[in-house]
Amino acid sequence: MATVSVPAGNFPATDCCTVRRWKITSSRVVAMLASAVTYKVKTGKVLMLSALSSVHHLHTIRLFLLTLAWLGSASQVSAADSVSALGRLEPANGVILVSAPLTPESISGAIVSEMRVNTGQDVEQGQLLAIMETAVLSQAHLNEAAAVLELAERQAAAEHAAAAEVCVRARVAARESERRAELLKQGVAGEEEAELAAGRAEALAAACSSAKTAAHAVEAEIQLAQTQIEVREAQLQRSMIQAPVAGRILAIHTWPGEMAALHGLLEIAQVGKMYAVAEVYETDIGRVRVGQKATVSSDALDAVLTGTVEKIHQKVAKMDAIGTDPAARKDARIIEVEIRLDDSAAVANLTYLQVDVVISP
C-alpha cells in the first residue's frame, strides 16, 4: 500500500525510468519509497511519501518520479532568476581616513599632542578628536596677532583724537580769518593782520586733512591685523582635528607623541547606515535593478539580513572578495552593487565582513 501527497500543478513530461539523466531501476525505486522521504518545497507545501517495500504499483512509482522531476525543475528556475554574489559590509560613504593637514610649522611631519577619543566611541560631527603639537605655536601666533590688533586700535584712537583737535583749531582759525577780512573791508583792521589770519587758517586746514589721512591709515592697519587674526585662527583650527561626520571610531593609528604617517590618524564611519556591497559578475548585471530585494548571509551573522538595491556602480572592476571555492575565477570582472540593509544595528561592528548576497528577481 502506498500514499502520495503532491503539490497542485502540472508536472514536466519525463520518462518513468529516468530523472535528471539518472536511470532508476524498479528495485531502487522500491528502496526509495521504503525510506519515507519528506520534501519541503519553497512554497511551503510539503511532499509526503510513504510505502511498504512490497509495493509494486507502477502508477505510484511513476507519480513519485514525476514529483522528483518537478522539484528539480522548480529549483532550477528559482536559481536562474536570482543573482548570487560575494560581497562585503560597508558603512555609508565607506570608511573615512582622518589625517592631519600639513602646515608651515609641520612641513617635516605632524606630531600628535592629544588624542581625545577611543576605538568604538560614537562621536558627533565637529567633535574634537585630536590636537596636534603645532597647536601651541599656532596659539602663540594668534596671541601675537591679537596684540598687534589691540595696538593698532589704540593708535587709531589716538590719531582720531589728534585729527579732531587739529580740525577744531582749523575751524576756529577759519572763522578768525573771515572776521579779519570783514574788518579789513570796513577799514578797522590792517591788511597784514588779515593776511596772517588767512594763512593760519589755511595751515590748520591742511593739518586737519593730514591728521584725517593718518587716522585712515591706522584704520587700514586695523583691518590688516584683523585679517592676520583670521589666518592665525584658521591655522589653529587646522591643528585641532575634528570629526568630519557623525559616526563611530573604528581604529586609531597614531597616538600622542607619534608622528602622523600616510595611514592617517584614525578611521571613522557612519555605522548607523550600513550597506552590503555585492560584487556582481558583469554577465549578471543586466538582471539587477535598483529597488530589488536582497538577502545577506554569513556564518558570523545570527540571522539572514534583508535589504534593497540602492545603487549600481558605473565602473567594471576586478573581484575583491575572494571566496573559498578553488574553482572560482579570481580575475573575474565585476560591478559593485550597493544594498541598503534594513537592520544596520545588527552589523554595526562588522565593517568589511565578507558576506553572501542573493538578489531576488
What's the short story on this structure?
The protein is an alpha+beta fold and 361 residues long. The protein contains 4 helices and 16 strands.
Report on this model:
- With 361 residues, the protein is α+β, with helices and mostly antiparallel strands.
- 37% of the residues lie in helices and 29% in strands.
- It is built from four helices and 16 strands.
- It has helices spanning 26-34, 58-81, 134-186, 191-239; strands at residues 2-5, 18-19, 22-23, 38-40, 46-51, 83-98, 112-115, 122-123, 128-132, 240-242, 247-252, 266-281, 293-297, 305-318, 333-341, 354-359.
- A six-stranded antiparallel beta barrel has the order 6-12-15-14-13-16. The protein has a three-stranded antiparallel beta sheet with strand order 1-5-4. It has a three-stranded antiparallel beta sheet with strand order 7-9-10.
- Helix 3 (134-186) packs antiparallel against helix 4.
- It is elongated.
- The two termini are 43 Å apart.
- The model is unreliable at 1-57, 73-77 and 324-328 (pLDDT under 50).
Principal-axis shape equals elongated
Radius of gyration: 43 Å
Determine the N-to-C terminus distance. Answer: 43 Å
Strand sequence of the main sheet, in spatial order? 6-12-15-14-13-16
Instruction: Give the helices and strands as they follow along the chain.
Output: EEEHEEHEEEEHHEEEEEEE
Number of separate strands: 16
pLDDT averaged over residues: 76
Helix tally? 4
Largest sheet: 6 strands, antiparallel, barrel
The parts where pLDDT drops under 50 for at least 5 residues are 1-57, 73-77, 324-328
Beta-strand fraction estimate: 25-35%
Roughly how much helix do the residues carry, as a percent range? 25-40%
Which structural class do you get from the secondary structure elements? Answer: alpha+beta
